[in-house]
Amino acid sequence: MPQTSSSRKPVKRNAFYAQSGGVTAVINASACGVIEAAARHPRRIGKLYAGRDGIVGALTEDLIDVSRESRRTIRGLKHTPGGAFGSARFKLKGLDQNRAEYERLIEVFRAHDIGYFFYNGGNDSMDTALKVSQLGGELGYPITCVGVPKTVDNDLPHTDCCPGFGSVAKFIAVCTREAGLDVASMARTSTKVFVLEVMGRHAGWIAAAGGLAGRKPHEPPHLILFPEIPFDPARFLDKVKQCVTDYGYCVIVVSEGAAYADGRFLAEAGTKDAFGHTQLGGVAPVVAGMVREAHGYKHHWAVADYLQRAARHVASRVDVEQAYAVGRAAVELALSGVNAVMPIIVRTSSRPYRWTIGHVPLGEVANQEKKMPREFITSDGFGITERCRRYLAPLIAGEAYPPYRDGLPDYVTLKGAAARRKLATTFSV
Amino acid sequence: MPQTSSSRKPVKRNAFYAQSGGVTAVINASACGVIEAAARHPRRIGKLYAGRDGIVGALTEDLIDVSRESRRTIRGLKHTPGGAFGSARFKLKGLDQNRAEYERLIEVFRAHDIGYFFYNGGNDSMDTALKVSQLGGELGYPITCVGVPKTVDNDLPHTDCCPGFGSVAKFIAVCTREAGLDVASMARTSTKVFVLEVMGRHAGWIAAAGGLAGRKPHEPPHLILFPEIPFDPARFLDKVKQCVTDYGYCVIVVSEGAAYADGRFLAEAGTKDAFGHTQLGGVAPVVAGMVREAHGYKHHWAVADYLQRAARHVASRVDVEQAYAVGRAAVELALSGVNAVMPIIVRTSSRPYRWTIGHVPLGEVANQEKKMPREFITSDGFGITERCRRYLAPLIAGEAYPPYRDGLPDYVTLKGAAARRKLATTFSV
Questions:
Q1: What is the C-alpha to C-alpha distance for residues B87 and B81, in angstroms, rounded to an integer?
Q2: For position B274, what pLDDT does the model report?
Q3: ipTM value
Q4: What would the mean pLDDT of A321-341 be, rounded to a whole number?
């Protein structure tokens, strides 16, 4: 970081932080990293404001004054899941389509002397951060924009992994191991096939994590259905039968994004509700139904849905540390004078696992998606390879339990006091 | 326990232990209690055999020789979910309908000099244990039968709670709190209604446990659907709308046993699969579908299924201790000379929570079911009362984390070596 000489007083600006897109078990740990790092630079960063409900808070000038929260609450964010400031599924359109939104952002930032924009999200959010940095320059309002990576889907390019993924991976691996023991116990006289549905619309990283639950062929999960591998019902049903014959039962982890060769999601291909409408979501019951039709095995199925991405109670310690680290790094990068970048996790060694923080230009991550490489999936398409295990295993390492009170995790809640509005104008989103 | 005098050498007999019905996160802790207690009485109890796959192992003379397992493995059962010896959904018929099964049990017990029968299960299993004790007498083969209570459903009478319930209750309460934070984060621009389906075909205890996640009206869960309260769609949908209006979102915990006034399960009333067959199981998508039809809110749903009852990773410490204690007590009761009983948990104080072990005759628990008392459910039928909280809260208290290795719980696996068969006869089940 450049030292300020006595002759040039450092410019002090305020900062803005927002959470964007689907939340995770550790996105608040990144917030904690941003806030605590900003507090270490009182001569460079004045107030830190957070958008209430993400970028929507910036557009509507609904800014949470973070300085009103106690240090203890801010520390507690490190062990609190969900998005404590509120997040939003709100993608700003392209500059040509809706320049007004970007201009409004700059208007609000100007009113509050925001010099730093920290945007905590996935691919779409990095695109937004990039555009804000560009437009700021155009409109004569220079602003330093730094992305903070976050996504349970683990699909951001360049970074070795995405904060948020390690914890959902750990939850799914743990639950697969546990449910596998349950099914194994009773397979002789009861359930023979168990299907667990996990997130991952386009990339199979979370499903792959289920594969960490077992090491030997007889250990669950026996089959994984990835979005990257076109679903072939006949081959799948043969495998299930073989598995029940060989081991007495079959545990299947299926990605919500599992799809036929023609691109149709399995989840769309099946159930209708009481009104005859196609039931979206729920690939697990579809897969379980196929198995029952074909083989008649007794089955059970589970859909983890939000339980998986909110499961702070069994978060990966590595994930919590990385989430915090990218938050802190974002502030340090901004103060070092670089703009329009995102910190990334750089793996320097797998065994023992070592990592450091690097950064890439926002333009290189915006709107891109990293799928599972084919060499991470076994040749039959139903399992993970040793290479994949080597990649995944360190990401779920270590426990980072939250404190408990009365038998429940003692998660923090913000006061969320709003900063005084400075603009007479309003903006509806 | 009666002291043996020097003139009467104590009779030394072998013992048999079996797991029955749906497994839990702590049924193996009960096994550990039985095994460790038996080992403390080498002059009274010789070998301890366990039925492979529960009572099926006794009928087929497939007995696991527990003495072949290391002390470390046995200790590890205390933190391992599922049924390590195998469990069975196999209810012995009435004596008049199938006397042959009971006679076969006595034949196997006689061949292996089994003097103690420890049966770890729920209502049905206590009925079986009772019949074995009766028939043993009739056939001139006296055998001491002691039940070991277990069920996630918490529906056994007389005992204050059932080992297995506290841990599933804790998992559901934790997940409801976590998923609630997730939904709250994003409700402004995304999911407004979240439905979590939990177990409990006839009794709403597990659904009630979800209620522990929040204390104030605005805190999730906002609505609970109990099997004990007939489902009224119009009232329910009104409540959901009110909740979204007041708080911005609505979190619903629904028991798989939720039913209409005429007894039809909600889960049966809805979806059909690709082949037009009624899809059983899955009340969560049915409820979510109703909400979407009526109000158009964006929704998500989860089905916890086996994840909940296998969730040893976040087990209740109280539950683990009680599961172990009833196992140990079963052995002590048997050695004290009582027969056809089941140890129970007796609550002596709620604040602070104190409990002790009592026992009741098997005849008083067999085939009975304890539902939620009406005064545990709020007058509107959608929540839990303070009395219910006072009852439930101690049962989820304390954490009892398993050891981890490579980021995953280090659960034990038995060698499971079979005892040498002594009978030439076989028996098919």
A1: 12
A2: 46
A3: 0.96
A4: 97
pLDDT tens for each residue of A265-291: 998 755 554 445 554 468 999 999 999
Is residue B179 within 8 angstroms of chain A, CB to CB?
yes
CB within 8 Å of chain A, chain B residues 368-387: none
The Cα angle at residue A371 between residues A262 and A271, in degrees rounded to 5: 40
What's the total number of domains in chain A? 2
* Contact: A83, B185; criterion CB under 8 Å: yes
Name which of B173, B189, B408 is nearest A213 (Cβ-Cβ): B408
| DSSP SS3 for B219 | coil
Q: What per-residue confidence (pLDDT) applies to B281?
A: 61
Q: What is the C-alpha to C-alpha distance for residues B143 and B157, in angstroms, rounded to an integer?
A: 25
Q: Is the pLDDT of residue A5 over 70?
A: no
Residues B30 and B133 placed together within one structural domain of the fold: yes
pLDDT digits 0-9 by tens, A49-90 = 999 999 999 999 999 999 999 999 999 999 999 999 999 988
- Start-to-end CA distance of chain B, whole Å, equals 38
User: Which of the listed residues A309, A324, A354 is the one where a domain comes to its end?
Assistant: A309
3-class secondary structure, B330: helix
Let me know whether B59 and B137 are in one domain.
yes
- In the predicted model, residues of chain B with pLDDT beneath 70 are 1-9, 269-281
What integer pLDDT is reported at residue B96 of this predicted model?
79
Residues of B in contact with A182 (CB under 8 A): 23, 81-83, 306, 309-310
Interface probe with A: pick from B216, B253, B313, most Cβ of A within 10 Å: B313
Q: Please check whether residue B9 touches A, CB under 8 A.
A: no
Q: What is the mean pLDDT of residues A171-197?
A: 97
Q: Does A134 touch chain B (CB under 8 A)?
A: no
Question: B314 to chain A: which residues are within 8 Å by CB?
Answer: 313-314
Distance from CA of A321 to the nearest CA of B (A): 15
Long-range contact set of residues B381-385: C-beta below 8 Å, sequence gap at least 24? B381/B226, B381/B229, B382/B222, B382/B223, B382/B224, B382/B225, B382/B229, B382/B236, B382/B239, B383/B211, B383/B223, B383/B224, B384/B208, B384/B211, B384/B212, B384/B224
Report the catalytic residues of A: 153
Q: Tell me the pLDDT band of A429, cut-offs 50, 70 and 90.
A: confident
Domain boundary pick from B270, B292, B309: B309
- Let me know whether B101 and B22 are in one domain: yes
Q: Are residues A296 and A185 in the same domain?
A: yes
Verify whether the Cβ–Cβ distance A281 to B271 is below 8 Å.
Answer: no
- Kindly determine whether residue B396 and residue A409, on different chains, have CB atoms separated by under 8 Å: no
Distance CA A408, CA A403 (A): 8
| Of the partner residues B178, B189, B286, the one whose CB lies closest to the CB of residue A312 | B178
- Indicate yes or no: CB of B305 within 8 angstroms of CB of A304: no
Q: Which domain holds residue A353?
A: 13-151+315-367+401-409
B236 and B208: one domain? yes
Between B82, B181, B279, which is nearest A271 by CB? B279
Q: Which pLDDT belongs to residue A4?
A: 43
Would you state the pLDDT for residue A272?
55
Domain identity same for A247 and A190: yes
My answer on whether A19 and A143 are in the same domain is: yes
For residue B6, is it within any domain?
A: no
Any chain A CB within 8 A of the CB of B284?
yes
In a domain, A157, yes or no: no
Q: Of the candidates B126, B101, B142, B81, which has an alpha carbon nearest to the alpha carbon of residue B311?
A: B81
For residues A57 and A136, state if they share a domain: yes
pTM, to two decimals: 0.96
B184:A82 CB<8 A = yes
CB-CB under 8 Å, B309 with A185:
no
Contact A251, A221 (CB under 8 A): yes
Which stretch of DSSP H or E encloses residue A100?
helix A99-111
CATH number of residue A79's parent domain: 3.40.50.450
Percent of chain A whose pLDDT exceeds 90: 85
Report, in this order, helix, strand and coil percent for chain A, each rounded to 5.
40, 20, 40
* A29-39 average pLDDT score: 98
Q: Could you say which residues from 210 to 269 on chain B have a Cβ atom under 8 Å away from some Cβ of chain A?
A: 212-213, 269
- Per-residue pLDDT reduced to its tens digit, A377-403: 999 999 999 999 999 999 999 999 999
A390 inside domain: no
Q: CATH number, domain at A299?
A: 3.40.50.460
Query: Is residue B428 in a domain?
Result: no
